[in-house]
Amino acid sequence: MPLIDVQAERCSPDIVLPSYEDVSAPTDAVGVRPLLPVVGANLRVPLVTGQETTYANLDYAASAPCLEEVAAHLTEVLPYYASVHRGAGYASQVSTSLYENARAQVAAFVGARADDVVVFTRNTTDALNLLAHCVPTDSAGERAGDVLFLDIEHHANLLPWQRGRHRYVVAGTTQRATLVALRAELAARPAALLAITGASNVTGEVLPLTEIVALAHEAGARVVLDAAQLAPHRRIDLAATGVDYVAFSGHKVYAPLGSGVLVGRRDWPDEAPAYLPGGGAVREVTLTGTTWASAPQRHEGGTPNVLGAAALARACQVLADLPEGALEEHEEALRNRLASRLDALAGVWLHQIWRDSPSAIGVVAFTVEGYEPGFVAAYLSAEHGIGVRDGKFCAHPLLSRLGAQAGTLRASVGVGTTLRDVDRLADAVERLLSVGPRWEYARVEGRWTPVGDPRTAPAWAGATLGSAGGASPCESGTTR
To answer: Other CB atoms closer than 10 Å to residue 232's CB: what's the count?
Structure first.
């Protein structure tokens, strides 16, 4: 598809942007108000026009903003911060209690079984690499069984498995066909582990988890759930579904500070070599040998991220305390509104994996005719104060099968999103298609950027907008 010449006259700073303060729906209608308060909800951002506007964050699937309750909790516990375990001081004992109690709170959030283990990690990627390290091996050090995964996975649930025995299944055009293919592959050759996503990070489509676990267990395979996208949007219950392991990140569930977690059956982590050998992972060390601690400590060498674990646990509590169905109802209203409005625009294509997907989390992937995704994202930010994600979303095989080798756009919603936010995005895309951009854009270090961008970053950010890092390495000549 040819791309249009993205030249436009720079807009005058006295152009007045549309106001979204007035919402015609009743104030108690679903989606009109945020479901939970988040930090930065009223963030004001500059536009290339010289004006300011309230930031419309539609990039929750990348990193969700911090819940206000999580921020308040961190402010409360920060004065007590100290190194955990083996400390007799009061602050150390409080921090140890905070850290270990966080395990119990996370376990409750995912419906863990009584004998499941909770290992804190840096993020979902770290958690899945930890589990890859724990898959049983034979006498030669090779995996004793294959790891099986679909071709739609995020790289975090694909790359760790490629380091050992592995196979993949090409997802069908329907979820039903995909289950049939999984069953056939598991029946043809046994596997030690089936690695599956809970919800696509590209399209938001949710898989029938209980059915998948049943067919895997019938074939003697365990199941690990990549819940990076599912955990912020849906209830997870390991005991009820039979899922053996689950991995997710704090920054996806409104808890910054670099925390993640692997929760699941204890035997594999207990029997595996230490994932991160170091202090805290041992019972006794001599110059000739080491007696390792059991999991979780065996895999948490070094001083742990106490505040990250505390933030993750509090976020899990806040989400769990929402009324049953409230989260799904909120995001369904937002996603339906956005998808229907974008779908009504000539020149916009929505992407999906399966024709029969019964549900999806608050993620919409789309392409705008005549414009590269990176250009549209730059335009939305510079001229409308809207944040979306563009690119391949660390899911290159999936983007290829969707026919989007140059990437797509992804809008994602969460507890702080409102109908006004999604309407702003739809209106901005409609304006782009009808009258085009009002500013001139050019590629700088692989990224589309407003020419002569007058916006500046806060002094503490340490760099001019867009000048630090350039394009992601995985873009390699394409645009995000």
So the answer is: 26
Q: Considering the entire predicted model, what is its pTM?
A: 0.92
94 CB burial (10 A radius; 0-12, 13-18, 19+): middle
For 86, 160, 264, the CA distances from 195, given in Å and listed in that order, are 37, 10, 13
User: Is residue 401 classed as helix, strand or coil in its secondary structure?
Assistant: helix
For residues 157 and 147, the answer to whether their CB atoms sit within 8 Å is no
**Rounded CA separation 247/227 (Å):** 6
Check if the beta carbon of residue 86 is closer than 8 Å to that of residue 80.
Answer: no
SS3 380: helix
Q: Catalytic positions, please?
A: 394
**Which value, in Å, is the radius of gyration of the alpha carbons in the chain?**
23
Q: Which DSSP helix (H) or strand (E) runs through 45?
A: strand 44-46
Cα–Cα distances in angstroms (integers) from residue 444 to residues 34, 179, 299, 456, 478, in the given order: 36, 44, 42, 16, 13
**Do the beta carbons of residue 372 and residue 401 sit within 8 Å?**
no
Q: Report how far Cα 7 is from the mean position of its chain's Cα atoms.
A: 34
Which residues make Cβ contacts (< 8 Å) with residue 312, sequence separation at least 6?
A: 102, 106, 120, 250, 253, 255, 259, 260, 261
Cite the DSSP H helix spans in 220-352: 238-241, 267-271, 306-320, 326-343
Q: What is the pLDDT of residues 245-304, one digit of tens each?
A: 999 999 999 999 999 999 999 999 999 999 999 999 999 999 999 999 999 999 999 999
Structural element, H or E, at residue 421: helix 419-435
